């Protein structure tokens, strides 16, 4: 188990400055090159001038003040959308499978949400023990704690296969696995004692994330955007001053008729551990920077006030919102490391895919966000035909 080092993800400017003084990294624009965002080092992360304030609860999530997003309206619409409500009931009913036969009642009742639910179950079912092997970003290992995990954190179920046989399904540890997820001792898996589980492959988690996000966006009114597992412009090296960095996100919320990106998402098979394993947050920081810089060099068709990253880490989903000022933009353009401007990334969550209530809350947020994007694009389109 890795030693916890909270200062490796600075929450405030003062924490960043203290860590920066300790490591004394070169200014960002003096690096010969940056490695891929997924391989970014701590010194390079510090060079990006990013802070991550203390994680806030999912109930605290707020949209940008300039964004016309109506979560209450989304809740009302989805509350009367039968297949979505069946999807939530499927989670709350603690069902462990989706029928695969063409005449399956499950598939008919869940409609567009049948595939997302099936992939969520695969994310939960196909697990292995998590190790602390994350290259040079981990602190030295310390012995595993001897105490036994708290009761209620692990559970084994049997599930029926297509043939009617049963197989053992190991439910990975995350909170208390009652259908209602009530009475949980821990808000997120990072806080739990004992060993953790992770999905056996990142592609399984990616399928679950993109299927869910795409389904929610698809049922908005005449959507002008869509979620795609498209690495797009971030496949190429993004120039920051004289430095280049490759950043590949796992997907984007992209305009259907315009090339603008309105959200990005990133998935990992293992749980988020910002205290002991900060590499995931370093990577997401670099992806935000790459996205901002991409928009600086490729003028957007439609201006948008909010930078949103949706992260799924095993069976937990987080919403991350980045904010910055003109001073930070000048830093990216000119490399003036004397600035006091930072990129601040506020993390909300987690939303557990095992909880019907939490998935409904997340869906309301994503629906409202996608509808706001659509309404904004259509508003601009009506004023400036055609959008190109």
Topology of helices and strands:
Elements: H1 13-23, H2 42-47, E1 50-51, H3 71-79, H4 82-92, H5 105-110, H6 114-125, E2 127-129, E3 155-160, E4 166-171, E5 197-199, H7 202-218, E6 225-228, E7 237-240, E8 243-246, E9 251-255, E10 261-268, H8 279-297, E11 307-313, E12 316-323, H9 326-334, E13 343-352, H10 356-383
Parallel strand pairs: 1-13, 10-11
Antiparallel strand pairs: 2-5, 3-4, 6-9, 7-8, 9-10, 11-12, 12-13
Helix pairs in contact: 3-10, 4-10, 6-7
Distance between the termini: 51 Å
Helix content: 25-40%
Query: What's the SSE pattern?
Result: HHEHHHHEEEEHEEEEEHEEHEH
Residue-averaged pLDDT, rounded?
82
User: Can you count the beta strands?
Assistant: 13
Largest β-sheet summary? 7 strands, mixed
Low-confidence stretches: 133-183
Region (Disordered): 121-168
Biased composition (Basic and acidic residues): 121-130, 143-168
Biased composition (Acidic residues): 131-142
Keywords:
7-stranded mixed β-sheet; globular; two-stranded antiparallel sheet; 388 residues; alpha+beta
Word description of this protein:
The chain is α+β, with helices and mostly antiparallel strands and 388 residues long. It has a domain at 33-59 and 67-97 and 110-128 and 197-381. The protein is 33% helix and 18% strand. A 7-stranded mixed β-sheet has the order 1-13-12-11-10-9-6, with helices on both faces. Helix 4 (82-92) packs antiparallel against helix 10 (356-383). The model is unreliable at 133-183 (pLDDT under 50).
Briefly say what this structure is.
The chain is an alpha+beta fold and 388 residues long. It has helices at 13-23, 42-47, 71-79, 82-92, 105-110, 114-125, 202-218, 279-297, 326-334, 356-383; strands spanning 50-51, 127-129, 155-160, 166-171, 197-199, 225-228, 237-240, 243-246, 251-255, 261-268, 307-313, 316-323, 343-352. It is globular.
């Amino acid at each position: 188990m890795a030693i916890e080092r909270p200062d490796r993800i600075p929450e405030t400017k003062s924490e960043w400055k203290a860590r920066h003084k300790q490591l004394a990294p070169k200014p960002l624009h003096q690096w010969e090159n940056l490695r891929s965002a997924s391989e970014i080092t701590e010194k390079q992360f510090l060079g990006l001038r990013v802070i991550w304030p203390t994680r806030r609860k999912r109930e605290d999530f707020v949209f940008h003040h300039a964004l016309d997003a109506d979560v209450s309206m989304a809740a009302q619409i989805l509350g009367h959308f039968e297949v979505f409500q069946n999807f939530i009931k499927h989670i709350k009913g603690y069902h462990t499978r989706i029928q695969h036969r063409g005449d399956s009642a499950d598939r008919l009742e869940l409609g567009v949400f049948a595939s997302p639910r099936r992939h969520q179950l695969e994310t939960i079912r196909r697990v292995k023990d998590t190790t602390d092997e994350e290259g040079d970003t981990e602190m030295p290992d310390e012995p595993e704690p001897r105490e036994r995990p708290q009761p209620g954190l692990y559970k084994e179920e049997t599930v029926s296969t297509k043939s009617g046989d049963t197989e053992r399904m190991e439910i990975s540890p995350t909170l208390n696995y009652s259908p209602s997820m009530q009475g949980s001792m821990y808000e997120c898996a990072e806080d739990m004692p004992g060993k953790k589980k992770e999905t056996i492959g990142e592609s399984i988690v990616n399928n679950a994330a993109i299927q869910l996000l795409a389904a929610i966006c698809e049922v908005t009114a005449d959507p002008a955007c869509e979620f795609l597992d498209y690495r797009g412009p971030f496949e190429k090296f993004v120039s920051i001053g004289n430095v280049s960095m490759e950043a590949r996100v796992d997907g984007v919320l992209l305009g259907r008729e315009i090339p603008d990106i309105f959200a990005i998402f990133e998935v990992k098979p293992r749980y988020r551990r910002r205290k002991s394993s900060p590499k995931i947050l370093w990577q997401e920081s670099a992806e935000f920077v790459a996205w901002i810089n991409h928009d600086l060099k490729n003028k957007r068709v439609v201006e948008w006030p909010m930078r949103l990253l949706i992260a799924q880490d095993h069976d937990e989903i987080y919403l991350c919102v980045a904010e910055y000022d003109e001073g930070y933009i000048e830093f990216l353009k000119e490399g003036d490391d004397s600035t006091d401007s930072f990129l601040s990334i506020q993390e909300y969550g987690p939303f557990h895919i095992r909880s019907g209530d939490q998935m409904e809350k997340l869906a309301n947020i994503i629906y409202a966000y996608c509808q706001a994007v659509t309404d904004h694009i259509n508003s601009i389109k009506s004023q400036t035909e055609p959008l190109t």
